[in-house]
Amino acid sequence: MALFSWSDDYSVKVPSIDAQHHRLVDMLNELHDGMVAGKAAEHVASVLDGLIAYTAQHFSYEEELFAKYAYPESAEHIAEHQKLVEQVVAFKTKLLAKEATITMELVKFLKNWLIGHILGSDKKYSALLVEQRVE
Description:
Layout: H1 15-36, H2 41-68, H3 74-96, H4 104-131
């Protein structure tokens, strides 16, 4: 069963970004489903690695658009990205040192962060990018 489903409420009206957000939702669901199904820790860690890599690509894409179109709140938005990256890197370090395991608490944190970020920070840039006709 999926952790959560994509909804049009999450749309920022920029097709490329909506597609990336949808992929992040799918990857979080894959991580969740792997845990629920009791898949091996290596499989779940591999899914988490993919999610981390894709998130970095997504953040980079958004940040390039911010620079290109002079998004006025880019510094604050980028700081949110950096904070999440720092949290995930710290967790990954603990995971590799066998000081932590992937838990539902982590999955729920990532879900809540993504939803909050899309509905809050990402919605703020929507009008600018739509106006610029970003596809």
